[in-house]
Amino acid sequence: MQSTSSSTTNTPSERGLEEITVIVNRSGAHRRKRFRGQLLVRWLQPTSNEEGTEILNVYRTAGNQYALHTRIVPDWDFSEGDPDHWGNPKNWGVGNGFLRKLMGFGWDWETFKESGDYSLQVFKTIEDLKAHVSSDLYQAVSQAMDGPEIEDLDI
């Protein structure tokens, strides 16, 4: 197997950047923000009171900055895992659409996807980001930045 990395690319899509749309809310009013970026790390951790889950996504932006998108789901038990994966009926392993609907009876997945408190912060450098995240998350972001933006595999 042979691999090469693209170090001289021009367009954002060639650099592995995608259109990212995130929810941000202030005083209960949801707004959507859009930018071009690449997800570096998705991180889950219990909230400080350990009664909910905090979901942190760190992106590298087209402007080579770092965007930290945080979602706090106050009543989601951290031990249940990623609420975006677990709560989505498409991930339940039930192939039949009728069975999916039956198992999800009473579950409002669309409303749940947008529940919680959301924030978006942008940092010019990875060092600026460091003061706002745990040391484990910072280390994960650093490791994600060590590799090439896109690795082309000849397989």
Question: Can you walk me through this structure?
Answer:
This protein is of the alpha+beta class. It has helices spanning 83-86, 97-103, 109-113, 126-130, 135-146; strands at residues 2-5, 18-26, 29-46, 53-61, 66-73, 117-123, 151-154. The protein has one domain (2-81, 117-154). A five-stranded antiparallel β-sheet has the order 2-3-4-5-6. The longest helix has 12 residues, at 135-146. The N and C termini lie close together (6 Å). The model is unreliable at 1-9 (pLDDT under 50).
In short:
The chain is of the alpha+beta class. Helices cover 21% and strands 38% of the residues. It is globular and about 45 Å long.
Note the topology:
Layout: E1 2-5, E2 18-26, E3 29-46, E4 53-61, E5 66-73, H1 83-86, H2 97-103, H3 109-113, E6 117-123, H4 126-130, H5 135-146, E7 151-154
Strand order of the largest sheet: 2-3-4-5-6
Residues in helix, %: 10-25%
Number of strands: 7
Oligomerization status of the protein chains: single chain
What distance separates the N and C termini?
A: 6 Å
Mean pLDDT across the residues is 79
Domain count: the total is: 1
The helix count comes to 5
SSE order in H/E notation? Answer: EEEEEHHHEHHE
Which outline best applies? globular
